[in-house]
Each structure stands twice: as C-alpha cells, then as structure tokens.
Amino acid sequence: MTLTPNLTAHWDEPDSYTVAGYERHQGYQALRKAFEMGPDAVINEVKDSGLRGRGGAGFPTGMKWSFVPQGDGKPHYLVVNADESEPGACKDIPLMLASSQHLIEGMIIASYAFRANHGFIYIRGEVPHVIRRMHAAVRDAYAHGYLGKNILGSGFDFDIVVHGGAGAYICGEETALLSSLEGMRGQPRLKPPFPAVAGLYACPTVVNNVETIASVPAIIRNGADWYSSYGTEKSKGIKVFAVSGHVNNPGIFEAPLGITMRELLGYAGGIRDGHSLKFWVVGGSSVPMLTEEHLDAPLSYEGMESVGTMLGTATPMVFDETTSVVRAITGWLDFYKHESCGKCTPCREGTWWIDQLLHDLAAGKGKTEDLATLEQLCAQILGRSFCALGDAAATPYPQALKLFRSEFEAGTHTAANDLFDPAAAVVFSGVKTS
Amino acid sequence: MTVTTPATGQALPPVELVTCTIDGIEMSVPKGTLIIRAAEQLGIEVPRFCDHPLLSPVAACRMCLVEIEGQPKPQPACAVAVGDKMVIKTQMTSEIADTAQRGVMEFLLINHPLDCPVCDKGGECPLQNQAMTAGHAESRYNGVKRTFPKPINVSAQILLDRERCVSCARCTRFADEIAGDPFIELLERGAHQQVGTADDQPFDSYFSGNTVQICPVGALTSADYRFKARPFDLVSTPSTCEHCAAGCGLRVDDRRNKVQRRLALDVPEVNEEWNCDKGRFAFTYLDTDRITHPWVRDEDGDLVPASWPEAIAIAAEKLAGVRGKVGVLTGGRVTREDAYMYGKFARLALDSDDVDFRSRATSTEEAQFLASSVAGSGLGVTYADLEKAPIVLLVGIEPEEEAPIVFLRLRKATLEGSTKVAAISSWASPGFAKTGGTVLAAAPGAETEVIEALATNAATLSEAASAVATALREPGSIILLGERLSAHPGAISAVSNLAGASGAALAWIPRRAGERGALDAGALAGVLPGGRPLTDAAARAEVSAVWGTHADALPSQPGLAFAEVIDAVLTPPIAEEPAPGTEADDALIIAETAVESAAVATDSDNEAADAAAQNAGIDADLEEPEPRISGLVIGGVEIDDLPNPDKFREALRDVDVVISLETRLSGVDAYADVIFPVAVDTERAGSYTNWEGRVRPFGKILKDAFTLTDGRVLAMIADQLDVNIGTGEPAQVRRELDELGTFSGPRVAPPAVPAQSVSTPEPGQAILASWRHLLDLGVLQAGEKYLAATARPAVARLSGATAAGIGAIDGEAVTVASDSGSITLPLLVTDMPDGVVWIPGNSPGSEVNSSLAVVPGAVVSITAGGAA
User: Fold this and answer.
1) Are strands B842-843 and B846-847 parallel, antiparallel or unpaired?
2) CATH number at A19-223
3) What is the pTM of this model?
4) Neighbours of B179 (CB within 10 A)
5) pLDDT tens-digit profile of B79-93?
6) Does domain A325-425 have CATH number 1.20.1440.230?
7) Residue B103 to chain A, least CA–CA distance (Å)
8) Is the ipTM value over 0.90, yes or no?
C-alpha cells in the first residue's frame, strides 16, 4: 500500500502552519464550500465519509455531531482534545505544529455543522511550543477573517480559545478535560449525561481529537466518496501513523487504514540493523502488545480487534530483542501510577500495588506468586475503574505475561538489567545509560 | 396540637414506575431510583463508601459494583438508575459482583493503616464492617504503605488523618453541595490524593461536624471527641437539640453519665441528616458551673446551702407574701412542659398573669402578634414548604446564624428547586450570599418602609423589589419573620399586613429552642395554653376545666410582659410620700420587719408575723400605693441577653423577692433569695416546639441523673402554698397539654402599630445594626474551646462612604459607642446603606447589650480608631 499524504502533504514547507501557506494548497476552500452546503449537509457528508474518531475509540464522527440537540436554545461547544499524552503517541503534536490551519478550518466547519459558536483547543501543558504555535495560528486566522464575526459573509460567528492544560494524562479523558477546562479539578465525570447533552458548562459539547477535526476540510473539499475510497469497509479513510522505537527511520507516515505493520516497517526503514523484532504496540501503551506473527494484520479498527488489540492512536512502538519486556511495562506502570487521578479505588490503589510488584520483578526480587497476583490485580482493575485510565493500566501485563512468561519468571531471581543490558536497547548510537 | 397529616383531598401526582428484578425479586420503583436505593428497599445492602443518599452520586469508590444483565462490565449501584425490565444481581447472587467488590475492598485496605484499635471510628466503621463482609481474611499486600504525618487540622475542630482516607469525597461533596462552604477539596492525585484546605483558609464552616459523621472511615475526627470513648462503651439516646428553633434530631452518646458526643439524627422532615456545629459540639455547658443544691439567703444577706424542704418552704413563704404581685420571667432554656408549668404556676399559685418567656428585646406589638397569629396555631409553614415556595422573604432573620437548618433547607431549595430567596436586611450576609437571592437593603428600623411598599406593590418599586412583591403573590410563597423586628415599632404589624395583602404564608422563627413551645404552652401574659386569649371567658373556662379550678380562679386581665415587669419594679406608682413618723410609715417598717423575720421564723411564730404583716400592709395601703411588682420568679434568664442588663440588675436589686431556678450560676443568683438547681436537657424528658410548630420530644438521657425539672420544683412550691398545679412531671404535663389542645375560638386581632419614623444619624453617628453569630459568647457554648476557635471573627461593617466620612480605613479599628459604653472592632467595608454600622451581637469584643445597652435601630456614634 502506498503512502497517501494528506494532512502531512506540505510539512516540508516552512510556513505550512500559516494561513498563507495553507491557502497555497486549497486551504479554507472547504470552508467556503461548507457554507454553501449548509450545516446538515456537512454532517451528512462527514457521516458518509466514514470518518471515525482518531483519538483511539473510533466513534463515528458524523454521528457524534448529530447527537447535539438542535434548537435547544443553549450554546453549543466544540472542544478539541489535544491532550496527547499516551506513551508512544506522537501525531497530534506534530499536526498542530505543521498543520495548524487544517485544524482551525476543521473546527470552523464542524462547529458550523452542529451550530457551535465557540471552540476550544485543550493542549497538554507539557508542550508550550505547541501552545504558542496554536496561539499564533489562531491569531493568523482571525487576521484573515476566518475567525470572529460573520466569517466570509456567511453570518456564522466562531471564536477559538487555545487552552493549555496543567500536565495531567487524565485530562485526555473527555469529561476530565471538560472539568479541567472549566477550571475544576481534572477528574472524570459520571456519564450519563454525555457531553453531547451536558458537556462544557453543562451545554451540548462535542469533544473531538485533533486529527479527526483536521481531517474534515479535505473530506468537505474532495467529497465523502473520495475519503471513503481509502481504507477498509469499516475503517474508511486516511490515517496518520507515527512509528517509533527500534526502527531505522522512525517517523510519521500517512496512509490508508488497512495498511499492515510490515508495510509501515518498510517505510520506517526496518528494524534496527542487526536486530530483530521482539514485540510492538500499535495504539500506545494502553493496548495489548503484538509480535512478529501479527505484522500482516491490517491496521484498521476491526483488523486490530481481530488480533486481540486495539488500533488506538495508531502510533506503533517497535521493540527489538534487546528490550526487557519486564522493564518496558514497569516503565509504563510508573506512568499510569503517576497519572492515576485518584478518583476511583481500583486505579488509584491498583496501580500503586502493581507498580511495586513489577519493580520487584524488574529488580529480580519478585516472588513466584507475584505473577499470578499481578494477573488477578489487573483483573480487579479491568472493567471496574471509573474511566479507561484504569483499564489502560491493567492491559499491558496480562498480554506480556502470556507472550514472555519466562522473563517474568526470571524476575524472581535475576534483575532485568542483568538479562538485558539497558544500553543495548538505547536507539541512539554512542549513548550509554549505565 | 400538631397535626401532621397532609390535607385530605389533595391527590398525589402520579409517579412513573419501572419494574426490575434484583437478586431474583421483582420490584417496582419510581423512575430514576438508583439501584442501591432500590436494593435497600428489599433489605439488600450493597456495600458502599462514597454513596450517600443526600449527596450527588460520584461512583468513585467502586465498592457497590453489581452485575446488570446485558452489561459487559459490573456497574456502580450508587450511580445507575433502575431501568425498566433491568435484571440486577448483587453480591448475594452474582459471582461477578461479589468478586468485583472483594477486589475493590482488597485495594482499599492496602494503603489503610491497621490502627483500628486506636482509631475513633473503630467499632462503628463502615470500612471495618464491610471489610468483614466483603474482604479477604488475610492480606496479600506486603508492599510499602502510603503514609502521611498525622493528623492535620483542617480547622480548629476538625482533624484529618490522611492515611485513613479512602477518597470517597463525601466530606468535600458535603462542604460544596450542602453547606456551600467548599473550604476542603481533594488535592494531589493518584494514591497521594488527599483532602486539604487552601493556605490560611481553614474549614471554618458552621456545618463542618457533619463531615466527621459521614466519613466512612476514621479520617475525619473532631478535636473534642478524639480518643475520648469507644463506640461500644457509649449509650445512644435520640434527643432534640436545644440550641435554636430548628428542632434538629440529635443522637446523644453518653458513657457513665457523661455526654461524650452528639450526632445528627436522621429526621427527614426536619434536619434530614445534618446539624450545625453548635448543635453537635456545644454541650460542655451541661457540666459547667452547675448548681448542685438549693441555696437560701440568710439574715446577713449571704447565700447558704439549704435542704430542699427548707428551700421550698422559704420560697413559698416569700411568694405568699407578694402573691398577686409576682412577675414570672423565663428564658429560652425552658421546655414546652416547663414553660407550661411556669404559666400555670403564675396563674394558679401566684394569681398573676405577669409571665413572659421572652428574655430579650421585646415589644407589646410582638406579644400581640404572637397571640394573634402564632400561639397554638399548630404546624404551619414546614421545611418541606420552603423547598416548594416560589419565594421566601426573610425579614429580621439571618438563617445561617440563627436557625442553621433553615439555611440549609433554603440553600437546597434554591439549588435544586426554583425557590428564590429575598431578604430585607442591612447587608447581604455570607449565608444569604450562599442562597443567592435579592437583598432589599434597609437600615434597622427602615424595614417597615420596605415591607409596606411590598404590601402595596406600587409601581414606584424598584425592579428588584417589584419582582419580590410579585413573587410573594404567587401561591406557596413564604415570609420568615425573626424576633429582631420586635425592636422596631410598626415593623411586625407591617409584616403581618404584608402577609395578608400578598397571601404569603408567615412563619415566626425565634432564636431559641424553647420560645415557640413556651408560647403555645401559655407562658406569656394574656395567652393561655393552646393560644387561648386570657380575656376570653370561654378560653378561661376551657383551661380551668382541665386545671380543675373554678373559672374565676384564673386572672382575667392580661398581665405585664417582660419589659413591663422590669419597669413596674423600677417605677412604682407615684404616691404621696408619707410624712416621717406617721402611723402609716411606722406600720410599713413593722410590716417589713415582720416579713423578714417570718422568713426565718419558726412555725409557731408564723401566724403572728403574718397577721402583723397583713395589718401593717392594709394600713400602709391607705397612704402608699401598692407596688405593682414585688417579687420575681426567674428561670433561664441570661441577664446579658436583655437589651439593658444593668437596668434588669437594678430591678433585681429593688424587688422584694427573687426566686431563681437555675442550672448554673447565672448572675441572677447575686440577688436571689432562694436558688433552686434544676435539670438540663440531658437530665430530663421534655419537648421543644420548633419554628414550624412541630413538637420535638426528647427523653431523659443520663438515667442516673437526680435533678428536678423547673416544673417539678414549681409544683413543690405550689404544694407548699396549698395550690394544686399537678406534679410537674413532663409526662403529666404532656397529657394536660394534649387534653387542652388548641383554641378554636377567636384570637386577638393582629397588631396595627404605625411605623415609627427612622432616626437620622448626624455626621459621626450611625444607626446600629446587629445580630448574633451562631458561634459566640452564648452561655450554652461555654467550655467548648475548639468550637469557639471556628467562630467568625468579629468585625464592624460600614459602607465605603460612611467609613470615609469618619476617616476609617478598611481593616483598621472603628469604635462604636453609646452613652453606656463602646465597642472597638476592625472595620470591614461592606456593601450596605450609608449611615449604618453593623457589629455582631455577642461575640468576643462585641457584646452589644452589656457594652452599649441599646437595641438595633438606635443611633450610636462611630469614630475611626480605638476607644479614647
């Protein structure tokens, strides 16, 4: 399958994030077309395109928009979830840096479709350069009349607020994000009510991923048929894949859904020279890991489901044989323990406990029964926590144990660093960790 | 007397039901019922921590996970509403639910300290209990437990042991949702999540104690109870709070005849499950400065201990000498039963109607209003009515300070319902701000003008006032009237008129627990039990029938009220001074000597002394008019509660006979001829009638206490006087009160006192505005230092212009002075009318009655800086 640059098509141009740079490549043409089509037609077009949420859950975007009650007399809001914090995920941040106007145009079109006059971009707090870039891009769009009152004489008003988070993974969860945006503590809220009914400031709100919204202008400009001609039956369209880890040429590759990991590995220059693939994780650390045998499974929502994992953010991390799987998932659990918001018991206490047991195993000080205990603890979290963060924390271990049991068993007597030299796993030549 | 049955003929609105199956049992519940509540109805207790029926669901602890057929994951029973045809399986029948719950319990315990043996919650701890039902017998956890330095003060009263916390957020939700004091919040994240306060912003909420009660672990404790007792050593008795007119249900826990703590009782129609910190923590007064035996004054004027028979005999003797000229003054401490006995004692044993329970600033206008519109009126406006009212207008009352549960219900009504709150007040208090309503600003005394304007709903009204006036005319609207307005002539008449003109229901909320009951029980001049007008022959006949006396045994002319009694003592009727050495003067001297000697005379001497006194008296009458009041029976009067304490002291000094019934040395004792120790609430049964008119009975708590009620002491004195007023035992009194019921005949007319013109302050002067803080120097808070430390600081409030006018600076001292004294407090510039100064009524450094001896509405001088 060939690469299909769309959002990333002009990243080699230095001003790709400006209105001028964007307009050179049909930028803001889709907006004009959308205003001619009318809001309902835009929703239908997006529905027909088969676009699904690119944040990981894959919910059909057009359908989400159509859930917003119309004529309810309340303000509607569009919130772009730019809190990309998943270990391994690095697609929204480059998109905001280089395709800023795609996102802004997409926001205007989406908001026009479900009748919102205010949009928010909630960017994770750890990336101030991205926050600055988006502020500049929004200013640029205002200066060109694409934001503000009566945009392009359409009578449609739209304003964008760029909001930096305070550095919490949980705020990628949409209701926690909304709480944080309201100035409250970033913890998830009970659903129902869902954001489409009572979201930001208790008003109907659509929360969409950066990539989802940025994909909208091309769909409107080229038509639903164009977009849905890419991809598979259930996973239509084009996706930004970010390949990282033990490959020769890590990077971002835009391709139709359904491409295989083997093909992506090819674009990424293959596994590090002299090494072989040990395992890979397709959707960020929160989805079950895969191995060599899954390289030909299509990278689509249903394709990944068929091999027991999830497409997630579609940002594959690749690990070669120098990697200690015990050390890898211990690192992830450090992250989840640190990022657990504390609201619900299973996630708060479970990550505290699991992390301790994994550290014991990584240090070669684990007990035989810890392997089973860990499995049970994960089962005690999975499906019982308040939000998906707990599920994510409970996901890596069971699959890793299934695939690499002996490594965990070795953790009862030998430290992971003795089995796998950490320096060998470092991708940059000449860098030693010990 | 209190009919609580809803009015017949009112059909309840139909409730939409859904049918579900829980553990194989089919049931129908109203739509929207949470699974956990539905299960409770079947007697199935799903374990829980964060769930609380009066707080919004949060589903944080995950302890109540249950299986719902068709759902891939177990669901929190506390947050999911029952759906039609839903099949639910709890831990009773579902392996999934049981495993899920046990897993959560295991997690909850890993970071929980095993300090149950020293934890105050041990023995009554939901975590401990549910660990037994849903936990593993042995822990698998060998890791590092999270620890914190312990404990920290979130306020002077509330302590937090963070390592015990299970992050259920009940306390923070209570503070935010119920009290409106979100001074505590969850901080940090993950396993380090903890409850905390902002720097220099302690959890000084009037309702903070509730968080201790609803904490499902021992994380929140109160400084006053910490390490004091084990729950299994305590005897719990349901009771009623004595601190205000709200009528909260209390659970009083005592150990070996000493009260250890008090908790809020679940009384849905009154206080729901909450109470205020005063009601919860202010009980050390029960043991403070108590009198344990009677005292009598000997011939040298010294108080000496006396036996009960001796004290009774002397009291009876002295009262017999002044019969018909005795004022009976009681205070808010008295129960309904004791108040009834004071009234009965006055009328039968003393031939007097000079009885009043209002030991505070009062007016005859107020007495007439109470007689016409409140006394014996039964259950009127209720807490539930507040929740349904389109508007509640507050006049002369500050609910958060004076009746905190009324405040909580108003807040609930404004948050959950469509109730609006408006107040006629000098400024928007913190409590009022939390109910988010409209303040129609008025200086004390100027309220009448606003009230009259609302009654006419004239076109000249401001937009805000017009909205209030219009809302008051909607069905269900309510006016709450506080006792403060009695200081302003015409104000109560205007409120009464406004209620009539607008159709709004009117409820009177006194500050003290005993006042409404005392009024209903007839402890007010001119008002017999059940709201019977004394002047009404039929009413007198009904009462005398129950009292077993001739109808003409009761006084038929209304007696003197509180202030009038004091005046009568201090200003005897004008008479010609008898010339020295005349017969009459000599006779008077003889009589006085005789009476005094009679007090210590033996039985055989009595007759002669009496005769001498009588002869002398008759002779003396020829020349000097009899003083209207020569004796006082006083029970529960706190001198500094009176608008002019020195004046009252002077009256006590001047009057011939003072009989005092007290729980503690009150200040009256310095003037008393006989002092009787009486029971406090924990030592007697009784009841208070709350502001709704709802009788809130309570039983004796300290079973071994051997003290007598006021009523019992009065009955013994009456016996000695050979008058039968019953035994005074609460049970007997209650029977009599039930028998008397309420009066069905006509009441007196409501007052129609014209408005008094409002005083205009000169430069350097202001009109005094004041009410009391909930936590202040009140004697029922004596000895509770932790509670006192959470009180609101005393400040003087002025408008910016008024402050500028006297050169006062925000935060710096301002002195408020009257002819009697001055009060200096830091200034807090407040949005309020110009020319008004507000200071708290009885807070440290601000004791209005004893320092200034004026009532709100008076003109006082204001100066920048401290007292000269």
Assistant:
1) antiparallel
2) 3.40.50.11540
3) 0.92
4) 24
5) 999 999 999 999 999
6) yes
7) 5
8) yes
